[in-house]
Each structure stands twice: as structure tokens, then as C-alpha cells.
Amino acid sequence: SVSISSDGSLIALGRWNNTIGLWINRNKESFTYEKFADFEEHTDKILSVSISPNGKYVVSGSRDRTVRLWSVREKRLLHGFKEHKGDVNSVSFSPNNEFIVSGSKNGMICLWSIKERKLLHTFKAYKDEISSTLFSPNGELIISGSWDCTVNLWSWSLEEIKLLHVFCGHTDRVTSVSSNSNYVASGGIDGKIRLWSIKNKEKFTHSLGRVLINDELFSPNEEWIVDRSLGNYYGIKLFSVKERELVHTFRGHEWQVNCVSFSPDGELLASGSWDNTVRLWSLKERKLLATFNHQISFGHERPCIECVAFSPDNEFIITGGWNYTVTLWSIKDSNKPQKIFDEHKNIICDVKFSPDGKLIASASRDCTVRIWS
């Protein structure tokens, strides 16, 4: 399990050797993290970690059936909550940094007070395993997902927790849940991404070839959902959140679409494919703007683009693939790459720009993360 602080200065990593590693970035101008602390009080594998919104705390859930609260500044354990009777699969902070919600393998949800270091509520929420628990952005609701195929919406106070609604529709285990102010999104093993309206309790459902929780599904303005289905279908489906329907299918790739990314301004979509191209699409005009052909430019050894990302200023894209290289492109020039970084020794799994756009981070199956300027 991995958690990154809201300002990007801290990274917490929960390990299967029962420990939590904490890394810190002391220089906002760089993208360099150094080891800051190791937390070693758990007695079994770490299943979930989360950094508080203010960056002062780390909370962890473990197979040892405990929730532990850590001080970042003091580098020590503040408290161990031991009321869970099953593996703790999920932990999350409230937006005001005052409470923790956790969910366990035996279907229990617990609400904890950070200030008082005590359990406020515990209740049997499900008959099956809980996969996700989190607070809504305003902190007024708790949202949970379970292996019983449902997503639950709860209101809470210091006095009670009340079930508001059960979102039903998944036909297999719910594996991941996320939320903004208006919607809850859930993904399940049934191969469906579902979008639920918090206000109207309505659902918008689309069937995927496979659930891909790490995909960039929502546009930055939350107007669009994109589905790059796997298998023999090579199109990219664009859905309107407001209209709750398919509005367009982008066609052009000649093989499986492997990755997608929205531009920060929400006007463009980039897609990478096993056909060895990255294609740039206009969401407004619903048309292809450019094709970046890696094979013509410098020759991928194997035909696959694994990842793609936009720069913060919408001027560049970076790609990574099976030829072990990271490639920088100008969206205004698809004829040749601006720069090629080729020091990785295996497939590139992910690429990202730093918030200021000056640095590029790449992760590879060679077990390294590299920073490029």
C-alpha cells in the first residue's frame, strides 16, 4: 500500500515485512526523496496506509488486526487501536484531520478519534470482507465498498452512524471506491465501473472488458468518463457524466489501446496502443488531431506503448513502452520526439511530469524509478 501527501512532500509505503517506510522531499524545487523514517510496531503484513491531509500523521492497517497512528514529526507510534477482530484492509483520514475510519476483513467498520485516541463507533457493516472505506470530501459521509458486491453510503456524528443508502448493481466483489463532492465511483471484479450520484442515488453503469482501477477514467473537469476496453475492440468510448450516456467512440488504433490520459485543461485525450502509436484526440471536436508513430521515429523493438501523460501546461506528452525508453513529444510536432531517455533496463510501467513540468518521473520493471530533466 502507498500513500502520498496532498502537497507531494511525503510518501508512505506499507510493506509485507510488517514495516512502514516514510520518504520526504525537503526541496520543493527538486523531485528527490530521502528516507525519513521506518515504523516497525506491527506484527504482520501492512494492508493499508494513509497520510493525513495536513501531513502530520500516518495511519496504517494490518493483518495483525490493529490500526496504528504515527507522528511524522516525532517519527514514532502515537497509539495502537486494537478493537478490530479481523485483518484491517482499509484506513482513511477525515478531511479535518480529526478522525480515522477503517474497515476489516470480517465486515466491521470502526470510527476513531485522533484527539481522544479512542474508538467512537464500531459496527457490523457487512457479512463479507470490506475492501474500501473513506470520507467524502466534505467529511460528512463515510463511503464503503465490500466483497458482497455493494457500495454503502453512511452519515455519521459523534453520537451515531446511520446507513443512508446501499448502491447495488455489481455482480462480483467491489475492489475499489473513490469519491468527489457529487459522485461515488466503484470498480469491481465483475468488470464494471459504476458511477453513483450521492444526491439522487442514481447510477451510471458501463461494462468493461476488465476492471482497470488505475486507469485515468475521469476528465479534470469531471464532465467525461473514458473507457479503453481491452480485447479485440480498438476504440475508446467517451461518456458524458451529465447525460449518463455514450457520446462518442474514437476509432483509429489498429491494435489494443493500452493507456489513456486527459490533458490538464480537459480538452485533449492521448491514447497509447500496441499498434506502437500514441494518438491525440480533441474532446470538443471529437476528432483525431495527431498520431505519434514511435516505430517510424526511432523503432520500438516490441509493439507496445505502456503509459502516456501530459505536461501541466498541455504542451508536451511523455510516453513509455516495451523498448525500455521514455520519450518526450511536443503536441505540435508529431514527426519526431523532442527527447529520448534510454537508461532503463526493462519495460516502462508509468510516467509522470512534476507539478511545475520541469521534471519527469518514470517507473520500470527494472525495479527503479528515474527522474529526468
TrEMBL record:
Entry-linked Gene3D superfamilies: YVTN repeat-like/Quinoprotein amine dehydrogenase
InterPro entries given in the database record: Quinoprotein_ADH-like_sf (IPR011047), WD40/YVTN_repeat-like_dom_sf (IPR015943), WD40_PAC1 (IPR020472), WD40_rpt (IPR001680)
Entry keyword annotation includes Repeat: yes
Pfam families according to UniProt: WD40
Mapped WD repeat ranges: 39-80, 81-122, 123-155, 167-206, 250-291, 305-339, 341-373
Record flagged with keyword Repeat: yes
Keywords on record: Repeat, WD repeat
PANTHER family assigned to the protein according to its UniProt record, in alphabetical order: F-BOX AND WD REPEAT DOMAIN CONTAINING 7, WD40 REPEAT PROTEIN
Designated name of the protein: WD40 repeat-like protein
Species: Rhizophagus irregularis
